[in-house]
Amino acid sequence: MHSMGVASLGYSTVEDIPLFHVAPGGSALRVVLPAQARLPGGLSCPGWCGILGELTRAAGSEEAVQVPVGDIVSLARRWRVDVVSIEGVEPALDDQLGELASKARSSGLTVAVRTQGLAPPDSLIDSADVIIFDYITLIDDPAYKVSATTSLEGLASSGLLAEVNVYIDEPLVETLTPVLHSLSRNTVLHLHIGNPRGGGAARQLYDIARKRVPYTYLHAPPYDRLETYCHECGALVAVREASRLVALKAPGGRCWRCGAKLPLRGPLYEATRATILRRSGGGTVWHDPRVLVGATRNS
């Protein structure tokens, strides 16, 4: 059995990742891989990885421990999670990603893989059931923006369910427009705004984004818009608060009012259970891998 470097393990609500359309109301094992010393496109850690880590809390560190792949899957089964979320800076670059994904799927788990667009979508298709894509407009690097935009366009045509996080500083239309043109209507868009400027401009940008991508969510506390509306009839089908699902009304993955098929991947829960909220602290509880599994520190 092979081992892989792991920086951290977390028990989480799926909404805290954030994943809103995959096992809504469920739980996840978050597997954060160590940051790569060298990245494609001339980018390097720690500088670029530091920006990502500050925004997503999922970059990890370059120091990690070796964990047997089978032990990670055993932990997911023991915790009875719905999703194994493989995160960090381009986990697709890890040679053991395919083995972990295969073993997790064999155990009936959904596999989510995080990417920042530096790895081509083709490298993720065989490993992921859903893609978590981080597009960071704060990185003013032309090579990164070309790579990320190209990957987004490839992802749109791949057929994979994708939840895309777009991180912007201020709610400016000109910042978001190039990204919107790279997304399909079936994409799930999470719009993260660091400085919402009173809320009005952030809500306006949210409304603009929803016209292009119906399943758009605004993360700009205290002006969040985390509700899900049917793309056909506009019915409210899901309500969320922070990192938990309050209510979901989508029998069989369809709109309760018009019956339209919604881009949801099961299992589907009516709300986040109290046991999950307690164990996750209402978000994510992070653990040192050595405490949970048979891990050894890298030499």
CATH topology: TIM Barrel
Strand content: 25-35%
Mean pLDDT: 86
CATH superfamily: Aldolase class I
Protein described:
This protein has 299 residues and is α/β, with parallel strands linked by helices. It has nine helices and 15 strands. The strands form three sheets. It has a nine-stranded mixed sheet, sandwiched between helices. A three-stranded antiparallel sheet has the order 1-4-15. Strands 11-12-13 form a three-stranded antiparallel sheet, with no helix packed on it. Strand 5, helix 3 and strand 6 form a beta-alpha-beta unit. Helix 2 runs parallel beside helix 3 and helix 6 packs parallel to helix 7. The chain is globular, with a radius of gyration of 18 Å.
Short description:
The protein has 299 residues and is an alpha/beta fold. It has a single domain (3-287), classed as Alpha-Beta Barrel (TIM Barrel), CATH 3.20.20. It is built from 9 helices and 15 strands.
Key structural traits:
single chain, 299 residues, alpha/beta, TIM Barrel, nine-stranded mixed beta sheet, three-stranded antiparallel beta sheet, 9 helices, 15 strands, 25% strand, globular
Write the layout of secondary structure elements.
Layout lengths: L2 E4 L1 E6 L13 E6 L14 H10 L8 E4 H11 L3 E5 L9 H10 L3 E6 L6 H4 L4 E7 L5 H15 L4 E8 L4 H8 L7 E6 L6 H13 L2 E5 L8 E2 L6 E6 L2 E5 L25 H7 L3 E4 L1 H4 L3 E2 L2
Parallel strand pairs: 3-5, 5-6, 6-7, 7-8, 8-9, 9-10
Antiparallel strand pairs: 1-4, 2-3, 2-14, 4-15, 11-12, 12-13
Helix pairs in contact: 2-3, 6-7
